[in-house]
Amino acid sequence: MRGVSLRVEPGEVVGLAGPNGAGKTTLLRILMGFLEAQRGSVRVLDEDPRSRRQLSEIGWMPESPGFPARLKVGQLIEFQAASFPKWDSGLAAELEERLGIARDVRTGDLSRGQGARLALLFALAHRPRLLILDDPTLGLDPAGRRLLLGELLGAACDAGTGILISTHLLAEAEWSLDRLVILKEGRVVLDEPVDSLKTRCRKVQAPPGTPLPAELAPLPSSAGDLATQWDDDVWRQFRVTVPGVDAQPVSLEDLYITFMETS
Amino acid sequence: MTPQLAFFQYEVRRHLSAFVIASLCLLGLPIALALKGSWRYWEGPSGDFLTTLVPYLLTPWVGGWIAAHGWAEDRSQKTLEWLQTRPLSTFQLFGLRLLAVVIPVAAWLFLAYLTMLPLLQNGNDHRGIIYNLALLLALSVGFGSFFSALLERPAKALVFSVFSTYCFHYFYIAIFLRKLSGPIRWDLWVNLSETSLLLISMAVEIVIPVGILLLATWAAVRVCPGDSRRWIRGVGTLLLGGAALSAILVALGFWI
């Protein structure tokens, strides 16, 4: 990681994207205190992550959650409840029901998706101030993904929880994110509110070989030409000059591909 | 229930099966003795020692097995991070985990003592044997914890622990008694019990290495137990501690 700096405000959902090996998981593990940064300083909730003082205020969901195979889910939930002073039993019971978690199953018998649901319960039930989710949709079925990205994250945001979510599924997470951070080779190549990105960037379809006006700061990519500085006046004039051109709102996935190819 | 107590219970439960199996292994001793009709396994010049061979052979495995589960098991089951998310300080996690190892190990030692009780009732002085059993157990817990802090698999940690315990114990004793040039005398243990000074110095000279091993374990897992730099921290501390201990021993000039 080099010069990575990012901030998650209360109630904000920040998406962390980047190619495999970009450093997303490493960054999240440093924030959790599982790895030590070789240089620089890291502060999470005003604490050094290595101090572990902030852990009661953080919800963590790893990419591949692991649980002791010999214990039953119910025993694990009780252990988790006893470990977190702010554990909300009412919320935990509600999440158990909504996530379809059975207490009398051994964790060793859980499928990947069931394990992910259990990890989600553990991440949310102590009402953390900060939620760190490392590719949480991995292993979840479409219903589980919709429940997580829609209702559960929405409810956490409404309660003022800041959420940092690493994901490859930008198309699914798009409507949940307030801000997008793209990492590439350990560096932040984009950090911007999603609304701002959607306002300034458009996907432009023009006849082949037609150059876009320089004022639109075009970026060509395999996902199509992207105008990265939108100007209505320039666009109107361009449409008059070049008939048949069209501009569409850009998806985060197209944005991601373009930034990856050009940064 | 406090988070500390919850974690401690979790750790104790982790070692329950190992403790039960290790305790059942001890049953082999009275059963064999009952079948043989004598309190000695083998008749020989050092029969008293041979009687306690089973607990002696079991000890490094029991201490190592219980201690080697821990960080290594967490790594192999991918539960290390999940456990590390608990809002407990690293010192509490380390201390409670160590305590959860010491309790079943101490309980097993007591059971081993009970199996050897008939020997004591026969009027034999086996304080040295019991004492050495405890020291060997402490050493195996030290090595087990150390290798568990470094390795990815508990089985590997156990093998390294048992090997290191045997090597260290016997060679250390050999060095300690300036027996490097000759074979280790198996009837040594009987003589040891008669010399309280020797027992005390042995305790000091095994307790200190165990202390160094636990310090190295602490250094390895203190910050980020999943970090690959735990090797540098752990092995570095062990080498420093070993060098300091060697210097002290040389300075003392093998004072016994």
List the helices and strands and how they pair.
The complex is a heterodimer of chains A (263) and B (256).
Chain A: E1 13-17, H1 24-32, E2 58-61, H2 73-83, H3 89-99, H4 112-124, E3 130-134, H5 142-158, E4 162-166, H6 170-173, E5 179-184, E6 187-193, H7 194-200, E7 202-205, E8 218-219, E9 225-227, H8 232-241, E10 246-249, H9 252-262
Helix pairs in contact in A: 3-4
Chain B: H1 3-26, H2 28-36, H3 47-51, H4 53-68, H5 71-76, H6 80-84, H7 90-115, H8 117-121, H9 127-150, H10 154-176, H11 188-192, H12 196-221, H13 230-252
Please characterize this protein's 3D structure.
- The complex is a heterodimer of chains A (263) and B (256).
- Chain A has 263 residues and is of the alpha/beta class.
- Chain A is 35% helix and 17% strand.
- Chain A has 9 helices and 10 strands.
- In chain A, the strands form 2 sheets. In chain A, strands 2-3-4-1-5-6 form a 6-stranded mixed sheet, sandwiched between helices.
- In chain A, helix 3 (89-99) packs antiparallel against helix 4.
- Chain B is built from 13 helices and no strands.
- In chain B, helix 4 (53-68) runs parallel beside helix 9, helix 9 packs parallel to helix 12 (196-221) and helix 12 runs antiparallel to helix 13 (230-252).
- Residues 41-47 and 179-190 of chain B have low confidence and may be disordered.
- Helices cover 77% and strands 0% of the residues of chain B.
- Chain B has helices at 3-26, 28-36, 47-51, 53-68, 71-76, 80-84, 90-115, 117-121, 127-150, 154-176, 188-192, 196-221, 230-252.
- With 256 residues, chain B is mainly alpha-helical.
- The interface between A and B is medium-sized, with 27 and 26 residues.
Task: Provide a short characterization of the protein structure.
The complex is a heterodimer of chains A (263) and B (256). With 263 residues, chain A is an alpha/beta fold.
